[in-house]
Amino acid sequence: MIEILNPHELPRAKEAGTLVADILQSVKSRTAVGTNLLDIDRWVQAMIVDAGGLSCYVDYEPSFGRGPFGHYICTSVNDAVLHGLPHDYTLADGDLLTLDLAVSKAGLVADSAISFIVGDLRPPESVAMIDATERALHAGITAAQPGARIGDISYAIGEVLSEAGYPINTEFGGHGVGSTMHQDPHVANTGRPGRGYKLRPGLLLALEPWIMADTAELVTDSDGWTLRSATGCRTAHSEHTIAITGDGAEILTLPTQAQSVA
Question: Whole-model pTM above 0.90?
Answer without folding.
Answer: yes
